[in-house]
């Protein structure tokens, strides 16, 4: 059993304090949903956890199994089992998707396997997220549709087998079949590998497929409400005002 703990996290971006004391505790096998109005700081939290240099942690700590990982390199965080599926993945020109995925597979699962065997595994994973194998021959995210990008992020998660996955709006721009595929993978990894999740979302839609243990509402850089799935339902029906007022 692993625990990711965020303690009193304050984060500054371009000289402005965006997060003002976030506390969160996520255990293996748990799914936490993070909701909140536009600009409340959800993506800032995900990038700060992963160590993006623009998102400066000015106070507070990130602890992984009581080890302080606040200031370690992103690469080290990934090695320790943290993963982020970006809200808007950027194109990496000149790097083929297959090259990236094979390198990731090799790093995490590949030891002792032949190159052809590894490539076949990568192709199988690609098929399982419902995208065309031809994308493997293109630059990473180059000309990918919105839904293809989201599915490719989940493909990377499948290969990297993280302990803690932060999914930043995995449901945006994804069609109904894609949503089902993504939700099934989230559930499968939770059940088989005890993966824990922080899922950032605007809609209850994904929570109809994935059962969140806790739902948090972020507003102006602070978590103003925490509850169960009924909180997401309330937001869906009545908007944020009903939650923020209370
Ligand atoms: N790199 C940046 N430079 C300047 N301001 C930033 C930067 N990143 C975030 N911000 C600001 O920080 C605030 C929080 O942004 P963030 O993207 O974390 O919100 P969010 O809750 O994820 O919003 P959304 O639901 O619209 O995706 C916003 O006011 C945003 O303009």
Automatic annotation (TrEMBL):
Look up the domain of life of the source. Answer: Archaea
Protein keywords: ATP-binding, Nucleotide-binding
Which Gene3D superfamilies would you find in this protein's record? P-loop containing nucleotide triphosphate hydrolases
Q: Which InterPro entries does the record associate with it?
A: AAA+_ATPase, ABC_transporter-like_ATP-bd, FeS-cluster_ATPase_SufC, P-loop_NTPase
- Using the record's annotation, list all stretches that form the ABC transporter domain: 4-245
What Pfam family does this protein match (any one)?
Answer: ABC_tran
Which GO terms fall under molecular function for this chain's record?
ATP binding; ATP hydrolysis activity
* PROSITE patterns xrefs: ABC_TRANSPORTER_2
Listed SMART domains: AAA
PANTHER family the record matches = ABC TRANSPORTER I FAMILY MEMBER 6, CHLOROPLASTIC
Q: Give the protein's recorded name.
A: Fe-S cluster assembly ATPase SufC
Organism of provenance: Acidianus brierleyi
């Amino acid at each position: 059993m692993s625990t990711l703990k965020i303690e009193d996290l304050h984060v500054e971006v371009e000289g402005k304090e965006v997060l003002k004391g976030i506390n969160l505790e996520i255990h293996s096998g748990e799914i936490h949903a993070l909701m909140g109005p536009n600009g409340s700081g959800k993506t800032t939290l995900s990038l700060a956890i992963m160590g993006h240099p623009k998102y400066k942690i000015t106070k507070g700590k990130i602890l992984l199994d009581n080890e302080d990982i606040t200031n370690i390199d992103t690469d080290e965080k990934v090695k320790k089992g943290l993963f982020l599926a970006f809200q808007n993945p950027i194109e990496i020109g000149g790097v083929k998707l297959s090259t990236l995925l094979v390198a990731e597979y090799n790093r995490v699962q590949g030891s002792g396997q032949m190159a052809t065997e590894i490539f076949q595994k990568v192709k199988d994973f690609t098929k399982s997220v419902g995208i065309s194998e031809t994308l493997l021959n293109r630059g990473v995210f180059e000309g990918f549709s919105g839904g293809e990008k989201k599915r490719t992020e989940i493909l990377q998660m499948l290969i990297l087998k993280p302990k803690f996955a932060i999914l930043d709006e995995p449901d945006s721009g994804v069609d109904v079949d894609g949503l089902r595929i993504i939700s099934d993978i989230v559930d499968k990894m939770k059940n088989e590998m005890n993966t824990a999740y922080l899922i950032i979302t605007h809609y209850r839609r994904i929570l109809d497929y994935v059962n969140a243990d806790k739902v948090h509402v972020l507003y102006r850089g602070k978590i103003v409400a925490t509850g169960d799935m009924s909180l997401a339902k309330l937001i869906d029906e009545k908007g944020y005002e009903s939650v923020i007022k209370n």
